[in-house]
Amino acid sequence: MITAKTTLNLLKTHFGYSSFRPQQESIINDILSGKDVMTIMPTGGGKSICFQLPALALSGTTIVISPLIALMKDQVDSLLANGISASYYNSSQESYIQNETLKKLQAGELKLLYVAPESLQNLIPHFASIKISLIAVDEAHCISSWGHDFRPAYTKLGHLKKQFPNTSIAAFTATADSATQQDIVTQLNIPEAEVHLSSFDRKNLYLEVRPGNNRIDQILKYLDSRPDESGIIYCLSRKSTEKLASKLNSNGFKAKAYHAGLSADERSRIQEDFINDRTPIIAATIAFGMGIDKSNVRWVIHYNLPKNIEGYYQEIGRGGRDGLPADNLLFYSYADVVMLRKFAKGSSNEEYQIAKLERMQQFAEALSCRRIALLNYFGEHFTENCENCDICTSPPNYFDGTVLTKKVCSAVSRLDEQEATGMVIDVLRGAQNAQVLEKGYQNIKTYGTVKDTSWVDLQQYVIQMINQGILEIRFHENGRLVLTPLANKVLFKDKKVQLAILPKLEDKIEEKVITSKAPSNLFQKLRELRLVIAKEEKVPAYIIFSDASLKDMEKKLPKSKADFKQIQGAGKVKTDKYGSRFMGVISRHQA
Known about the structure:
- By secondary structure, this protein is an alpha/beta fold.
- Strand 12 (297-302), helix 12 (309-316) and strand 13 (326-332) form a beta-alpha-beta unit.
- The protein is built from 26 helices and 17 strands.
- GO terms for molecular function: 3'-5' DNA helicase activity; ATP binding; DNA binding; four-way junction helicase activity; hydrolase activity; metal ion binding.
- InterPro entries: DEAD/DEAH_box_helicase_dom, DNA_helicase_ATP-dep_RecQ, DNA_helicase_ATP-dep_RecQ_bac, Helicase_ATP-bd, Helicase_C-like, HRDC-like_sf, HRDC_dom, HRDC_dom_sf.
């Protein structure tokens, strides 16, 4: 029997942590007991450990299905650095490397094997003669057409449960709404899976939205206060990435463009330079980033509006993976909305994509805490202001909107939660159009109760209610509005609601400038040593130690091996390999 003491010992020895993060232990215990699981855990929440640790505890090999070569390489490099036998298999490798991996697999020498979904069928025959301890499906949202990174090869993974009925299947993703979550479970044939929904709240991420005028000038000012920091700027078009990278380089910043129009070798080289801190800034299309495990990205900028909140959330999640503060800046203009609508036009799920885009637009226009809006989108009903977004730090003026909110919620209820926002507004304003009259909605009690408020203003108030988690849009059910548990508190328990006074068109949003605190002298010295070791071992610097680990060294000033083992992320292997060199830097700094 695998005890809690055993799993904690594995956690400390191999990963350098003395305790589990929220949800990790219960997920691991479910896997160790033979259950299928589906886990939604935000980027930086520690989902990899949820399948890597069971791989160590169980006999046999864990198969990890992963969508990108960069992700596989990062994960395997990190595992090897922690003294764990792992490898990966994909179509980019030469045949002799693939054969070496297969020999290790057959000999039982691998605890984890990462494989691309497209290469999986080639490996199935080899699985017959080995013991498979677990099948982990990473980035599982790729299996769903409702998801934002749909990969056709993922849809074939449903056969795995039939082929290996006695092996646990564990699905993991950072971003999935309710429709995508259900689709993952259905397509993987794991209807009895234990579902673990971790909090989507990344408290270390600062959220900010600015008007999209003079974007390049704003970015140059923004970066002036962030020297020596790694960051990503997401753009809608290839041309934008190249133009922006050129502008940054001409202003003294070191940046490269990344997009699908570059050759595979060029993309790989640019990505490697970013991961290894040789290029601190990447201007990229959304083709960049999924699965990159770089922990010290300190800021993410969206040059254009993302097409949905799932994509936005995943992209901002690439910052601050080490738990230290990271800033996120989104530029918003209606021109981006028009362009994204054109992109969606004619697609097989056009209406669904447009609905998701409108929700992204509502987030950008939010007049209440952005974190509340983000968390409520993912079904996490959060009501306390975060104090770490632009709205919380520079709040608008509010009025008591309880009565108005009750009227809106009552209308949604009397329409049996079957109508979209537009119809709800029409009913509240007493519209006499054909759709309202044909359905007999002029006879319900809330018809015309908000007729003195303009259609546009009422729409904005409803958007605020959605962002505050009082109402929810069911995108996969024709965009109908439904009441949340918070709405019931407003209707029946007189919970007060504050709504923001709508700004006039001529009002401008004051630009907020955040200056980064300069890193300490010791932290810089530790970073320099980390870079030297990374070059010696030909791995990214963060694989040696994350920024969070260096900050912990700076705080605790370890003097002995026992002290060093208490550093966050310093397990037995890393303490033995690197401890004396880092403690030497600390000792010389204190002398």
